[in-house]
Specification:
With 237 residues, the chain is α/β, with parallel strands linked by helices. The chain has 2 domains: 1-36, no CATH class; 46-234, Vaccinia Virus protein VP39 (Rossmann fold, 3-Layer(aba) Sandwich). The protein has helices spanning 3-21, 46-55, 59-62, 64-71, 88-97, 110-122, 160-170, 201-210, and strands at residues 78-82, 102-107, 128-132, 145-151, 171-182, 213-217, 227-234. The protein is globular, with a radius of gyration of 22 Å.
């Protein structure tokens, strides 16, 4: 039975009980059912998230090994995967960083974090920590990570100055910021499917540098055509 059907049944049964034992008076109000959660019903099978968000012809899934290599995550690294989603890169980073490292999977959707915990446990990865973020705060302590990784998420930030201030604060001195984002070009700018993408690579680089970062690398990642990777370093001060 789906969650919404169950809620209707509970509400209807409760109203009937009130009518039967409440001096015979019929119930005059029935609570409205809750709105469905944003990513489907609560009992949604974890594999559905994985299939729809990773495997379903997604470039970042197909090129994951090349992206991992270009990210250059060393053993013992502390990495924040911001907008971790289903945990695709969190789990890859965890294997790369090893037991002496720590991977913070940050997302604003609790069910994604639950899924990441399940997947990490299945793989016996004990260095993955799920972190519930906020719209304008990644909720990590100052100087707690060596690398911040943001893939296919930057263009969704509603207040980029605010959240990037918390990213910068969480990075240790000299820490790296890796962003993988959609490459908006003159050819695809009119595509309504990408209306939420505000600017291309040049615009993103200029904005991120204004937040206290310096561009240090633009790796050519095999398999990335619609996306690009840029690497920044946290500036002192």
């Amino acid at each position: 039975m789906r969650v919404m059907e169950l809620r209707y049944l509970i509400v209807a049964s409760f109203a009937a009980a009130l009518a039967a034992c409440g001096r015979g008076e019929p119930a005059t109000a029935v609570a409205e059912p809750l709105e469905p959660p944003p990513y489907g019903v609560e009992e949604e099978n974890a594999e559905v998230f994985v299939d729809s968000m990773e495997v379903g012809s997604r470039e970042l899934y197909a090129a994951r090994e090349a992206v991992l290599a270009a990210a250059k995550i060393p053993v013992g690294a502390r990495v924040a995967d911001i907008g971790a989603g289903t945990g695709l890169y969190s789990l890859l980073f965890a294997a790369k960083a090893g037991p002496s490292g720590a991977i913070y999977a940050v997302d604003i959707e609790p069910r994604f974090l639950k899924l990441i915990n399940q997947r990490a446990a299945d793989l016996d990865l004990k260095n993955v920590v799920s972190v519930l973020g906020r719209e304008t705060d990644i909720t990590l302590p100052a100087n707690s990570v060596d690398v911040a990784f943001i893939a296919d998420t930057y263009h969704y930030f509603t207040d980029r100055a605010a959240i990037m201030a918390t990213v910068r604060e969480a990075l240790a001195d000299g820490g790296r910021l890796i962003i993988v984002d959609y490459n908006l070009t003159a050819e695809n700018a009119a595509d309504a499917q990408h209306a939420h993408v505000r600017f291309g690579k040049a615009g993103l680089v200029n904005e991120v540098q204004s937040f206290g970062f310096r561009l240090v690398e633009e790796p050519a990642v095999e398999g990335l055509r619609d996306f690009y990777m840029v690497v920044f370093e946290k500036l002192d001060g």
